[in-house]
Amino acid sequence: MTFNIFHQRREYTKMAKFNLPQNSKIEVGKYYKDKTNSKNLRKVNVYRWDPSTGKNPRIDTFEVDMKNCGPKVLDILIKIKNEIDPSLTFRRSCAHGVCGSCAMNIDGINGLACIKSHTDISGDLNIYPLPHLKVVKDLIGDLTTLYKQYESIQPWLKVDQTGKEKIELKQSQKEREKLDGYYECILCACCSTACPSYWWNGDKYLGPAVLLQAYRWINDSRDGDKKERLKKVADELKLYRCHTIMNCTNSCPKGLNPAKAIGSIKKMLATS
Amino acid sequence: MQKKNNPLSPHLQIYKWQISSLLSITHRIVGVINIFAILIICIWCISLLLGENYYQFIQIYLNSIYGKFLVISLCWTFSFHILNEIRHLFWDAGIGFELRIAKLTGIFVFIGSFIFTILFYLTGKSFF
């Protein structure tokens, strides 16, 4: 009994940690003045943290010449890296919103830098890494937990076939349509890291991205393990930490609806 | 790779509030307030049992400016919680998850809670 109370108190103090820990407090960083004498300048504030210095993270401000810059936020970042500070670190790959590498917090909302237009944002541009992650360097967050959680839902087709059958596994057009809005997910983690529930319970709660994927496999007509999948996900912490805050749907760069996927799982569990 | 001393990226500090997230946290806070509100209503009921003097005491308090402010605020907390809970009920049935609809119902709940408050207050006034 005593242990139980103690345990609960520990949970409480963990939950109430709304402030950043001491080593994560953000300091004012360098100011890079424009050297091109351009008249069309824009201030870009970028979160920086260098693991080799042992100092706290800082915000660097860059004055960027917008006259010779592409339309997306990623263009700005690449321009800074090429022309102002080559040590700026961020992930990017396809630049077309397909790979999900350049997910970051732009102007307070998570999104992909490669498809977010900076012209849509008024005032100074603020760029941070995805929220509530361990920072690896500058704009790169550590997504190991999320990938482990993704693995835990077993995101592959489980069939009753032995492999010796000579018939394909057929899926009608209607059954295939059920996966629309779910199979498009690129696992950029914008939704999961936008979710306050995931911030406070990220180690136990699966988060919108993984639950959307779980629903995608539950909903697949070819999958033979639907009941087991539902059973596995039906957990007070894994699933029901979702309180329909809907930050996930608000931030999804692909326009998908993780909140609806989670709602559908809850509904399935309530009606089955 | 050592991850222990790596900083935590900012979260609440930088994330922009959405209509949905604001309503969600308000729903929680208002829910807690409502528990205490029910306590006040219970005390009011008990004062009825205890006799005229006790009832008079609470009556005077509730009719003061502070009391009126309290009562009207509680009217709002209850109406907000009820309306938003209806929204949650529809979500439980799988309806209204689309971003536009969720935003619309959110605004509707917020405006509706004030309309309900006024209605509560006016019906209370005409009764007593």
Mean pLDDT, all residues of chain A:
92
pLDDT under 50 segments of chain A (min length 5)?
1-6, 8-13
| Computed structural class of chain B | mainly alpha
Q: Count the E strands of chain B.
A: 0
Which spans of chain B of ≥5 residues are poorly predicted at pLDDT below 50?
none
CATH architecture of the largest domain in chain A: Roll
- According to CATH, what is the class of the largest domain in chain A? Alpha Beta
CATH superfamily of chain B: Fumarate reductase/succinate dehydrogenase, transmembrane subunit
User: What is the CA–CA distance across the termini of chain B?
Assistant: 71 Å
Could you walk me through the main structural features you see in this protein, from its secondary elements to its overall organization?
The complex is a heterodimer of chains A (272) and B (128). Chain A is an alpha/beta fold. Chain A folds into two domains: 22-141, Ubiquitin-like (UB roll), CATH 3.10.20.30; 144-160 and 171-271, Fumarate Reductase Iron-sulfur Protein, Chain B, domain 2 (Orthogonal Bundle). Chain A has nine helices and eight strands. The radius of gyration of chain A is 22 Å and the shape is elongated. The two termini of chain A are 35 Å apart. The model of chain A is unreliable at 1-6 and 8-13 (pLDDT under 50). Chain B has one domain: Fumarate reductase/succinate dehydrogenase, transmembrane subunit (3 helical TM bundles of succinate and fumarate reductases). Chain B has four helices and no strands. In chain B, helix 2 (52-63) packs across helix 3. Chain B is extended and about 65 Å long. Classes of the chains: A alpha/beta (272), B mainly alpha (128). Chains A and B meet through helix 8 and helix 9 of A and helix 1 and helix 3 of B.
